[in-house]
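Q: What changes when zinc ion is included in the input?
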Amino acid sequence: MKKVWLDAGHGGTDSGALGNNLREKDITLQLVLHARAYLEHNYSVDVQVTRSTDVFVSLSDRANRANAWGADIFVSMHINAGSGTGFETYRYPSQEGSQSSLLQKELHTEILTIMRKFGTIADRGLKTANYAVLRETNMPAVLTENLFIDTTADAEKLKNATFLREVGEAHARGIAKYLNLPSNQVTFYTIQSGDTFYSTAKKYNITVQQLQ
Ligand SMILES: [Zn+2]
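A: The predicted holo structure follows.
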């Protein structure tokens, strides 16, 4: 089973960015919990999180724990600040076509599409940066910056519980697309003449072992 590491930015004594009566650490935790719930409900996948409560974890510990667990991918969720507006994603500086770049594309497209159901969202682009959690992780890793906490129009969306759930779930779907995760929804299928284990497994994107 594929192993997904979800990283909620900041926590505990580190509030992250502040603005409009919001704290970055609270929103990133909500996004991660929504993403985890959606992944576990819809796919066969092993999910691990840096934190599921309001605690401090150092940047190196985040990367080290994901490395030690043998995560297949690492996705870190943040809220931007600095009076801009919109959505952007980061990978460690690497060429187009690298695994991190492919993961970034899937996440970026999926999340931006969902955000735009809620109004105009500026696409700030697919970027690279030498961030510790991107540099120190051994697997494809992407960090998302989900709107600006100190910009009123962005903050209004970040106060909307439905927006946070849908954006968290969009992270999950981007991850599922990149990893090609098998669905875990129970399907009833009547074996017909001519079916083989192989053809039936292929049809539902599962392994022959899972089918048996
Ligand atoms: Zn942050």
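Observations recorded in class: The mean pLDDT is 94.
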